[in-house]
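Q: Lipoprotein, please. Structure only.
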Amino acid sequence: MHRVLIVTTACALLGGCAQFLGATQVTTTGSFAYGSDEQPIDASMTQYMPWQLGPSSSKTKAAHEEPIVTVAAAGWGLVKGRADVLATFPTPLEARPGRNRTVEVCRQQAEEGARKYNPAVQVEAVSARPERRLPDGGYEGQMRIRIVYTRSDFHEVREAMMSCATTPEGRFAKAEVLWPT
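A: Structure for Lipoprotein:
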C-alpha cells in the first residue's frame, strides 16, 4: 500500500470541479459537497479543500472544532492538532479488510489540494470499509485520511473520515467528509 502523509487536492482525486464539505476550491472533473464556510485557495481555482483537512485557522477553530493542542511526538518534534487525532499519531492508520478502489484516487486528490496550502505535506489514506458498486458502474468507498502539514517550527496533523466515489473508468467523481462534522 502506498503511504504518504496528508495534504492533497480534491480535483485530481474527485475528477472535474471537486468540492469538499466545508471546503476550499480547486479544479477537477467531479464534485465534492461543501458547506457555507468554504475558503478559496486561489481565485483562479475551482476545487475545494474541506475545512476538516485544510490547515487550521482562527476561523476553523472558532466555528468547528474543539481546541487545538500541542504535544511533543518522538521523531516529529512539536505537533499540533485535535487531541483525538494526536492520540493515535504517529501510529499509521489501520486499514479495514476488503477491496476499496477509491482510496488511492481520493488520496491523490487530497494531496494535490493540500499542496495548495503547503508543498511540504504528507498524506496517508486507508480503507475504512469495502467499496460498493454504484448504479453507474463506478465505486463508492469510505476512507480515513490524515494530512501532516510541515511548518517552520511544528507539524500540524489533520484527519477525517470521508466517502469517496469514482467514475466507472476509475477517475475521481466526488468526496464528502463524514467525520468530523
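A: Brief note, in case it's useful. The radius of gyration is 15 Å.
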